[in-house]
Give the backbone structure.
Amino acid sequence: MIIIILIWYPKCSTCKKAKQYLEKNNLSFETRDIVLETPSKDELRKYVSLSGKDTRKFFNTSGMKYRELGLKDKLSNMSEDDMISLLSGDGMLIKRPILVTDNKVLVGFQEKEWSELDENN
């Protein structure tokens, strides 16, 4: 059986939709609060690799923290390590929810993408 971890922020409406989707589809999963248990640098490197996406896709571009730090203009000049360090230092900078399985990571909630994962289990 595949272990599913939902890394989420409980007050986020999109995260709540993602959790409801998993429950509705009878998928067994564990939750992890992205602020209380922010992914480590090693975890984030693994997630980026398993997602097949650029590290920049892991930033919560609509968040206040992202805007406060002016990251829109800074990310293109940052190294991979600098981005990972920034993300691991503040869960509110990370795009959510993140769905983690043994061999796949999905960032953000898009039902079509999540349903394809469900079909592959």
